[in-house]
C-alpha cells in the first residue's frame, strides 16, 4: 500500500495575512494606531475593524498612511484622525518591499512612502509585516525599484541628478508610469515617483539617504533606517518575530 504525504504550500497572500494577524495581536485597546498601506497592511486593517466590531478592541484611533487605507478603515469602522491631532502614536503596522538584517527597509513601491514615513516615524513602536520573499541581504538587493517621491516641477532634472548620484551602483532611474494609460503615477500628495534600479550595493545607506534628501526636488525616499522596532516574517516554516 502506498502512503501519501501532503505538503502544505501557502500562497504569498496567505503568508501576508498570517503576518498581519500576528501583528494585530500586539494591538491594545485605548491606543492610537498607524495604519499602513498595501496588500499586507490591508489584512491588518481588516482584522482591527473585525476586532472592534466584536468588542474585543475598544477605543482605537487610526491614523491612515494613504487615501486608500483611509477608505478601507472607514469601511471597516475604525475611527480615524491625523498627526495634527495625535502627533505621537502608540503603534504602527505596515508592510515593506525589502527588509535587511538590521531591520532597515525599502518602502513605497505602492507609492505611499511620504505619508508612511511621517506616520510610522511618529510612532513609539513600528511593527513591519512581511512574507519571507521581502528579506534581502542589503537594500536594493531584490533588483526591484527603490522609490523616490519628487515634485512634478522639472522632474527630468531631478531624475538625471538621482541617476548620476548613484552611477557607482549602476543606477537606472525611471519615472513611474501607470501601465493602463501611460500617464505618470501621482501620489496622494500630488507628486511623482522616480524608481531607482540598482545593479550593485548603494554604499553607506545613511549617506545615500542624506544625499537624496538634499536634492531640492525630492519630497522623500523609500529608505527607512532605524524606524522598525519589530519585524514579523511569515514563511513556509512558520512565523518569526525579531525585535530591534
Ligand atoms: O510601502 C508600501 C506602500 O507604499 C507597502 O507597504 C509596500 O509596498 C509593501 O506592499 P505589499 O504589502 O503590498 O507587498
UniProtKB/TrEMBL annotation:
EC number: 5.3.1.6
Pfam families: Rib_5-P_isom_A
One of the GO biological process terms: pentose-phosphate shunt, non-oxidative branch
Record-linked CDD domains: RPI_A
Record flagged with keyword Ribonucleoprotein: no
Catalytic activity: aldehydo-D-ribose 5-phosphate = D-ribulose 5-phosphate
Recorded superkingdom: Eukaryota
Keyword Signal: no
Pathway field: Carbohydrate degradation; pentose phosphate pathway; D-ribose 5-phosphate from D-ribulose 5-phosphate (non-oxidative stage): step 1/1
Transmembrane annotation, as ranges: none
Alphabetical keyword list: Isomerase
Enzyme class: isomerase
NCBIfam families: PRK00702.1, rpiA
Record family assignment: Belongs to the ribose 5-phosphate isomerase family.
Protein name per UniProt: ribose-5-phosphate isomerase
Upper taxonomic lineage: Eukaryota, Viridiplantae, Streptophyta, Embryophyta, Tracheophyta
